[in-house]
Structures are given as structure tokens and as C-alpha cells.
């Protein structure tokens, strides 16, 4: 199958290049390839399969919905009503009554585009501020807001009015020339640029922020950074968009990551794990004061995936009933403990994570350069030993894991042992 795909599929295919397996079937935290090899799947469909593969209750929700109604455009339907109610019910109580929902196309990028467009409509302004190292999607505007040059180099992608600022990536940001001595130069720089009429930035329509950069290499934002960005944007009347496409739906231990920062965003972007089973859906939740779109101002065909709505409503129920967020926090602490020893390894620069989103950053001890080639070897060796992991960050030097949120302690233990061995055996 890999050879057949090589013949007919676009050269843009990504995952099978580094993870050369053809998947036959999957259940829970495991996938089986065509040769019968079983792997622990800590990629989980790029963070989509939050309750593991083929969760039986989600399968039932989808099959029950099939035959009743599969696609509903933006008409009201019972499945959509229940899903919207479930999503709003997961917001902090103070925010719940003030937010509106807008369903977007099937992917995260669709919702990012919608968020930015809404803020432009609501403010009548055009500039957007984004952060270095960010990833917001592969469509034109979402890519233009993506701070990682490697992601967009081949298309000379850019949009006028997009400005990048340093993210709180301490020790690696251009404003932090002496490692670990800076705390908040990034926000001071942002603040001065916004207040300085000569900085070349008109009052922006929005600031878009990932609370943990995922594709950027699992970089959690510092608390003081996020709170100051929020205070500044509130003071200046700039809507703050949090891109929770990857961090949302429980991934970091709260339903949304912003809850851990004690802030209220103006717009929340969500997608990946909303249905829990990979049935595509994306949405923005936004403060009602931004509700300025005229009817039909942002339409799209695929905004009524009833299968995703049906599964997503059940997924929220399971998260509550099975105390999945507790599991995310406990398994996250377990991973932190298990991987702690790696910090002493000469090629490991940092082990970082929140909840069930972790990264091991590899760097050459001689010169501190990102060790992307080593990360690729670690990924290949982990695969040979039965664990699927992903890469990210600068030159793909961060080995990333996104386990299912209901993963067991036993699976975490086995997977971490494979990962640690892969780092130790692959290093020079
Ligand atoms: N935002 C973030 C934070 C993401 O991680 C991703 C996908 N990795 C996207 C947006 C884009 O989502 P999609 O691939 O579904 O368009």
C-alpha cells in the first residue's frame, strides 16, 4: 500500500514518509498495521481521537445518527442543539452566557480563518498580531499567521498587516540574549510596539495566540506572559483569539487551556477533538459583543456534520462521567515523572508538557543547535519498538506525544519506556 500510494498520491504526503506503516484497524490506544504489528498510538490522529480509536459509545452515537440525518447545513437540528449546549456547558460559568457559537468548515484552519475575519468585521481594522513559532493551519490566511517559516517557505506566503512577535519561549527568543535571565521582554516589546505610533502597526483587529504551541514543539506559554497580553489587549480594545485547536477539549487537563491562565479570551477556536472520533467539525466561540456578521456573512457547505455533533455530545458526557480530565492530569504527572530522567541526557535540551501534550526537545550539546536528525532517528526507533510519536518544533527537533485522554497508566509506562530507550539508543 505504501508503494501504491507513492505512485498516485501527491508528493505532499507527510506522515507515511517518517512513519512507514499502512494501518489496517485500531482500537483504544492501539493501531494494527497490515502485517499484524500492533503499535501504541501516541499521535492519535494528530490529537483528534481524544477517547482513543473507535470508542464504543462514540461508534454507537455515530451509527445511531446515520440513517436519521447526516448533513444539515446550518439548519437547527436536535443533534446540533445538543452539541452546542454541551460545548457551551464546558465553558467556565462566567463566560458561558456571553459566548456565541459559529460552526465553520470541517478543519481547524477553517475556524482560524473565521475567527480572524470576524474580528476584522467587528473592529473594522485589518492588522493581525501573531507569535513566532506558531501554527494555525495550511490555508492561505491561517498559514500567513503561522510563525514557523519552515511551514510556509515553499510558497512565499504572506498577507499584508500580519505582524509577528516573540513567544514566551525562554532561552530561545530573540529578545532573550542571555539564557534564562529574561522574564517578560516579549510582552514589554509587544506593549511598546502597540503604544508606539512609529512601530508600523495600526491598531490591530486581533491578536492570535496558542497557549501551548503544538506544532511549534510543545511550548507552554508562561502565565505572566499570557496575563499581560490579555491585560494589554483588553486595555487597547483588541480582541484576543486563543487557538485551542490542539490544546482544546481536555488535552491540557482543563477543557480549554486558557482556564489555567485565569484569563477570558474574546474568541476561542476549536476543532480536532470536538467529535472525539475524527468526524470533522470546527467552531469558534466568541463574545457576543463581536456578533457583527450580517446573515450569510460567513457561510460554507460543511457546517452541519450531524455525525460529529452526535459523537461530540456523547464525548462531552464521557469526559464528565469518566472524570477524563482527572486522568489527563494524573497521566500527565506520570509522564513528567517517567521522563524526568531524560533531562540529564546530554542531547535532551528540555522536557516540556501540559496534561497529555508532551515534547522532548533534542539539541546538539556541542553548539546547542536543534537536533532534527536525531529526533527522526528516535521516531524511527520508537516505531520499530511499537510506539508512534510525532515531531515538531525548530527543524523538527522535538519528539512529541499526544496520547488519548483516557490512556491507562500501564500504557503510559510502556510507551515512556520505549521513548526513553529510543532516545538513549539513537544518540551519538
Ligand atoms: N491550529 C493549531 C493550533 C493546530 O495545531 C492545527 C493543526 N495541527 C491547526 C490550527 C489547523 O488545523 P487543521 O489541520 O484541522 O486545519
UniProtKB/TrEMBL annotation:
Q: In which domain of life is the source organism classified?
A: Bacteria
Q: Which SUPFAM superfamilies match?
A: PLP-dependent transferases
Q: Does the keyword Transferase apply?
A: yes
Give the family this protein belongs to, as stated in its UniProt record.
Belongs to the class-III pyridoxal-phosphate-dependent aminotransferase family.
Q: Name one GO molecular function term.
A: diaminobutyrate-2-oxoglutarate transaminase activity
Q: Which CDD domains match?
A: OAT_like
Q: What is its EC number?
A: 2.6.1.76
Xref: InterPro entries: Aminotrans_3, Aminotrans_3_PPA_site, Dat, PyrdxlP-dep_Trfase, PyrdxlP-dep_Trfase_major, PyrdxlP-dep_Trfase_small
Cofactor(s) this protein cannot do without: pyridoxal 5'-phosphate
> Any keyword ATP-binding?
no
Protein name, please? Diaminobutyrate--2-oxoglutarate transaminase
Q: In which pathway does it act?
A: Amine and polyamine biosynthesis; ectoine biosynthesis; L-ectoine from L-aspartate 4-semialdehyde: step 1/3
Amino acid at each position: 500500500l505504501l508503494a501504491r500510494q507513492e505512485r498516485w498520491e501527491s508528493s505532499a504526503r507527510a506522515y507515511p514518509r517518517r512513519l512507514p506503516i499502512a494501518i489496517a484497524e485500531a482500537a483504544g490506544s492501539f493501531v494494527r498495521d497490515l502485517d499484524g504489528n500492533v503499535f501504541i498510538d501516541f499521535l492519535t490522529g494528530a490529537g483528534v481521537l481524544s477517547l482513543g480509536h473507535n470508542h464504543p459509545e462514540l461508534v454507537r452515537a455515530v451509527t445511531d445518527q446515520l440513517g436519521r440525518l447526516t448533513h444539515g447545513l446550518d439548519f437547527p437540528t436536535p443533534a446540533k442543539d445538543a452539541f452546542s449546549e454541551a460545548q457551551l456547558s464546558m465553558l467556565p460559568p462566567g463566560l458561558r452566557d456571553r459566548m456565541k457559537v459559529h460552526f465553520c468548515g470541517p478543519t481547524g484552519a477553517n475556524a482560524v480563518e473565521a475567527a480572524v475575519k470576524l474580528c476584522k468585521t467587528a473592529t473594522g481594522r485589518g492588522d493581525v498580531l501573531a507569535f513566532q513559532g506558531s501554527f494555525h493551519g495550511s490555508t492561505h490566511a491561517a498559514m500567513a499567521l503561522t510563525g514557523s517559516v519552515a511551514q510556509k517557505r515553499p510558497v512565499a506566503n504572506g498577507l499584508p498587516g500580519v505582524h509577528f512577535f516573540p513567544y514566551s519561549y525562554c532561552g530561545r527568543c530573540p529578545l532573550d540574549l542571555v539564557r534564562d535571565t529574561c522574564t517578560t521582554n516579549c510582552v514589554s516589546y509587544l506593549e511598546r510596539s502597540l503604544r508606539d505610533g512609529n512601530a508600523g502597526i495600526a491598531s490591530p483587529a486581533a491578536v492570535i495566540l496558542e497557549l501551548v504551541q503544538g506544532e511549534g514543539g510543545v511550548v507552554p506559554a508562561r502565565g505572566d506572559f499570557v496575563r499581560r497580553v490579555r491585560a494589554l489587549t483588553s486595555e487597547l480594545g483588541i480582541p484576543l483569539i486563543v487557538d485551542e485547536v490542539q490544546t482544546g477539549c481536555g488535552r491540557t487537563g482543563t477543557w480549554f487551556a486558557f482556564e489555567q491562565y485565569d484569563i477570558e479570551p474574546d474568541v476561542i477556536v476549536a476543532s480536532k477533538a470536538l467529535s472525539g472520533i475524527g468526524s470533522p467539525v470546527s467552531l469558534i466561540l466568541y463574545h457576543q459583543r463581536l456578533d457583527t456578521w450580517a446573515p450569510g456573512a460567513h457561510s460554507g457547505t460543511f457546517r452541519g456534520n450531524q455525525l460529529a455533533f452526535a459523537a461530540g455530545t456523547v464525548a462531552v458526557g464521557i469526559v464528565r462521567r469518566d472524570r477524563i480530565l482527572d486522568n489527563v492530569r494524573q497521566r500527565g504527572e506520570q509522564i513528567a515523572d517517567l521522563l524526568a530522567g531524560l533531562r540529564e541526557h546530554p542531547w535532551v535540551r528540555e522536557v516540556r508538557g501540559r496534561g497529555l501534550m508532551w515534547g522532548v526537545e533534542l539539541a546538539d550539546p556541542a553548539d546547542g543547535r536543534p537536533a532534527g536528525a536525531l529526533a527522526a532517528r528516535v521516531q524511527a526507533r520508537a516505531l520499530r519498538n511499537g510506539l508512534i510519536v510525532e515531531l515538531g518544533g525548530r527543524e523538527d527537533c522535538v519528539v512529541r506525544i499526544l496520547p488519548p485522554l483516557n490512556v491507562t497508566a500501564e500504557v503510559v509506562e510502556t510507551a515512556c519506556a520505549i521513548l526513553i530507550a529510543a532516545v538513549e539508543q539513537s544518540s551519538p
